[in-house]
Amino acid sequence: MFAAPDQDRKPSPDDAVTPSADRPLAYLFLDFNAYFASVEQHDHPELRGRPVIVTPLASEHTGAIAASYEARGYGIRRGTPVRDARRMCPGIAVMPARHDRYVAVHKLLMKEIERHLPLDKIYSIDEAAFRLSRSERDPARAVETARRVKQGIAENVGPALRASVGLAPSRLLAKLAAERVKPDGLTVLEARDLPHKLADMTLTDIPGVGAGVMNRLEKAGIDNFLKLWNLQPKQARAIWGSVMGERFWYGLHGFETVEEPTKKSMIGHSRVLTREHETPDKARIVARALLLKAASRLRHYGLFASSLSLSARLRPEGGWETARRFSHSQDSFLFLKTLDDMWETFLTRQRREGPAPRIGGVTVYLHGLSKPGETAIDQLDLFAEPAQAETDSRRAGLWKAIDDINADLDAKFRRLGAPSGEAKRHISLASQSGLALNYLGAKIAFSRVPEEAEFMY
Ligand SMILES: [Mg+2]
Fold first, then answer.
1. What does the DSSP 8-state code read for residue 81?
2. Residue 170 DSSP one-character state
3. How far, in Å, from the CA of 172 to the mean position of ligand 1?
4. Which entry of 62, 226, 343, 409 is 20 to 30 Å from 366 by CA?
């Protein structure tokens, strides 16, 4: 599953002690500083060198979504209410966000940087990783390249658009290197600098260590960077609860892992309904159970979904299908609510057309799957509220805990020799109690993964 670039062998835990020459500089990571505010300064030269905040709307009753470094000097940060910002820094420029423009400038920036280096991965509108060539792996050469990139941006796009650059053997380390000096930094992190150069890192500042993982790390007694560094890949996998932990370990130790191409484009289940379950209310409970099962698999793979499709086959003939999009999520509550809304829309229309439909089968799929850090630029939730993201990750943590308990119960039942498909005492939602769980005990996944194109939107 893992392969270090330009190496034929699979990295192993022993690699942690192999010479750092095995892990040369390979990535350049750019993190644009106060990006939205910088684009405003770029487009309005009179704002350069001045305190600027960007707000989601032209309203005094909102908060900054970006603050220029000049504004930060007044203690103004992302999230500072406009009223407070005006009080802290009279005369501050308050600019309503122009997301189209930020995306357009992002494209110009990527095009300019690609004149120097091949793009590896876009992380967000203001962060991206690029690959260094073999000849650029020498630190002096890599720094020279980074300076050329910065100069190219200043001359060909605009001097207001500054970025902090990190150079390192893996993308994760290059990102951490870029974080070290802001704004306009240029930091080299070599394998031999580790772990001491990062020993002061706050664990939750490391991408991949969210609130849920931090909780598990603390339970395992890992409360500082050196302890995190000293984990074994297997331990990391156990703590993360997925292969993501192992991948994190390799990235942290300077091995870039080539991810298997995501074979899954969707996760879901389908079920033919017996006569007993063909009424809309009963069919809905089956659809919800299928969705909960799909969501549990989604979390198991460490994936996030951004849309849900629901289709129903009707008796004696006909069918109906629909899909909805949402912000990338692992939250079963959000999925269930989306499903219920879709179901309600379907029923309202059916009721207008005649008697309650009889439902012969339901299919539920989660689509738009991604791993953290793989969000494509056109899917960015530019307006997403930080509070919402926090609720999402808290809920995802809760569902992960439920998944773990259910998996544990499954294992215990299996040890006790319970035949598969036997009713099991699982943790589930009270609203799902109308469904005997053994109904879902049989194999209900498709035997192949259909292509997304096979689904009509
Ligand atoms: Mg940034």
1. B
2. S
3. 15
4. 409
Regarding whether 282 and 392 lie in a shared domain, the answer is yes
Q: Report the separation in Å between the CA atom of 42 and the middle of ligand 1, taken as the mean of its atom positions.
A: 15
Sheet holding 93-96, edge to edge: 66-67, 52-55, 93-96
Q: Which residue, 317, 374, 383, is CA-closest to 102?
A: 383
Cα–ligand 1 centroid distance for 179 (angstroms): 9
The partner residues of 130 in beta bridges, in order of sequence, read 28, 119
Distance 369 CA to ligand 1 centre (A): 25
- For residues 280 and 371, the model is more confident at 280
First to last CA, the chain: 33
The catalytic residues are 127
Same-domain check for residues 11 and 64: no
Beta strands 163-168 and 186-188, pairing class: parallel
User: 156-199: per-residue pLDDT in tens?
Assistant: 999 999 999 999 999 999 999 999 999 999 999 999 999 999 99
Percent of the chain with pLDDT over 90: 48
Burial code (b: 16+ CB inside 10 Å, e: under 16) for 136-147 equals: bbeeeebbebbe
Q: What is the span of the domain harbouring residue 213?
A: 1-22+195-260
Residue 402 counted as domain residue: yes
Instruction: For Cα atoms 176, 182, 187, give the angle at the middle one, nearest 5 degrees.
Output: 50
Check if the beta carbon of residue 107 is closer than 8 Å to that of residue 115: no
Name the DSSP class of 91. T
Q: Cα(101) to centroid of ligand 1, in Å?
A: 16
233, containing H or E segment: helix 233-240
Distance 167 CA to ligand 1 centre (A): 16
Q: What is the DSSP letter of 63?
A: B
**Claim to verify: residue 234 and residue 297 sit in the same structural domain:** no
Element (H or E) spanning 120, and its range?
strand 119-124
* Global pTM exceeds 0.85: no
Residues 296, 302: Cα–Cα separation, whole Å: 10
Summarize the chain as % helix, strand, coil (round to 5): 45, 15, 35
Distance between CA atoms of residues 223 and 326, nearest Å: 34
Task: Answer whether 166's CB lies under 8 Å from 176's CB.
Answer: yes
C-alpha distances in Å from residue 339, one per residue of 48, 91, 329, 432: 48, 48, 14, 14
Domain closes at, from 260, 283, 299: 260
- Identify whether residues 64 and 206 lie together within a single domain: no
Count CB neighbours of 313 within 10 A.
Answer: 17
Nearest CA among 453, 330, 340, 344 for reference residue 403: 330
Amino acid at the residue 294: A
